[in-house]
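Dear colleagues,

I hope this message finds you well. In preparation for our joint manuscript, I am sending the CRISPR-associated Csy4 family protein (Vulcaniibacterium tengchongense) sequence together with its predicted structure, so that both groups work from identical material. I would be grateful if you could confirm receipt.
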Amino acid sequence: MTTHYVDLTVVPDPENSAPHLLGALYGQLHLALVRNRLDSVGVSFPRYSLDPRAIGSVLRLHGDAATLAGLMAEDWLKGVRDHVRATGVLPVPEGSPHRTVQRRQFKTSVERLRRRRMQRKGETAEQAAEAIPATAEDRPDLPYVHLRSRSTGQPFCLFVALGPLRKEAAPGTFNSYGLSGTATVPWF
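The corresponding structure tokens are as follows:
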């Protein structure tokens, strides 16, 4: 149950922008959640905005007090600690609404889709272009965190969508990015 939270605010400097630091912080959190096999820690972005589209500079962790205290006692902030201000483990304000915070994936590169099809089906570039028109490309308008895949080293955008506000919490588990399409986190 997500009864407590910790706010992690990135502090940019002339050499590191807030989005760059948030991506580094979120990448470190992902590794810590995987390493500890934690599916009870959710995340939210309290400064999330669609207009203008921005994820903000605060990463909020949600969970029970003991789990969050244990996570924060570890050295997972190594490498970003100088650029992060963390609150202590705090209780969620009474009466807070809840919502899901989930990942949305898009087909954002027609060229990548075509190359993949050529490899999978043994097609020529012309055949793949005919099968996948330029209009197949999605243009996402959601805020995102820029991350780097630990397995391939490739950069990618993790797009974040918010579910509708609810009065009641929905229990469940979170993935290794602290996101879920069914489990909710308090939204305040």
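For the figure legend, we might mention the following. The radius of gyration is 19 Å. The CA atoms of residues 98 and 166 lie 5 Å apart.

With kind regards,
E.M.
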